[in-house]
Design goal:
The protein is an all-alpha fold. Helices cover 50% and strands 0% of the residues.
Length: 109
């Protein structure tokens, strides 16, 4: 993690199971609400953005649902930051669409 960024929180032991079909933004919003730094409120989009190496605006867009297609590497980084398995952000439907897109793109002329 780059120097001067927030230290990721401890891994949560809270019921964070994603609901099937739940949008990415809802899952991320839940992490912001539940996983917090010690002795204060939620992480800010700026703190998360610095830790991931992306803009705070992009984190805010993910959180509010204005941008719902982060890269796989960004989802893994978010999961690592919040201390949850990266599978937290996936459901069967989303994973299926991503696999189909990869196969379609691979077979394109």
């Amino acid at each position: 993690m780059p120097e001067g960024t927030e230290t990721p929180p401890e891994k949560p032991e809270l019921g964070l199971a994603a609901v099937k079909g739940e949008p990415f933004s809802e899952r991320l919003r839940r992490l912001f609400e539940i996983v917090r730094p010690p002795d204060r409120g939620e992480f800010t989009p700026a703190e998360v953005g610095r830790a991931l190496g992306v803009s705070h605006v992009l984190v805010w867009q993910w959180k509010t649902g204005r941008q719902n297609d982060p890269k796989r590497s960004q989802m893994h980084a978010l999961a690592e930051f919040f201390g949850v398995p990266s599978g937290y952000f996936y459901d069967d439907e989303t994973a299926g669409r991503r696999r189909l897109a990869r196969v379609t793109n691979a077979n394109s002329p």
